[in-house]
Amino acid sequence: MKKISLVALVLSFIVGQTVFAATASQDVLSSSTSPTMSDKAPGCGCGVRMKEMMSSLNLDATQQSKIKAIKDQLKQSQKANWEQMKSIRSQIHELVTADTLDKSKLDSLIDKKKELLGQMMKAKITAKQEIYSVLNTNQKTQFKQMMKQWEEKRMNHQC
């Protein structure tokens, strides 16, 4: 049981970092120019992928406003989820630094974190699909290619 709990905790941290890295890419569309190094998120620059993709799709003004609304809505919902995630992380930290491990509380926190991560993933996927539905046929083809490239890069990503 200890091993299962430990594995679940480690996986929870790994998934949490992945979700954090993924949600960092939710930058708001601010211009149609290519981003510079100063526009990128700290570290490897994961935070500009969506912005790069949107600028390379040559969106018209209507598409840009619809996509901005979708992204703003996602940002608001994810903000609330991140506050809950912070609380869970601090509670897990308290468990780690306690003299004895409260296994039932750990299991409860892991369950809460899994549920929250599921909600966050669902919201991101829904937003991507809504963005996809705004695109024309050529843009959809280009979007699919970019998503495939992202996935390939993500498989080799180390941050």
TrEMBL record:
It is found in: Periplasm. Pfam families: LTXXQ. One of its GO terms (cellular component) is outer membrane-bounded periplasmic space. Keywords: Periplasm, Signal. CDD domains: CpxP_like. Residues 1-21 form the signal peptide. One of its GO terms (molecular function) is unfolded protein binding. PANTHER family: PERIPLASMIC CHAPERONE SPY. Belongs to the CpxP/Spy family. This is 16 kD immunogenic protein.
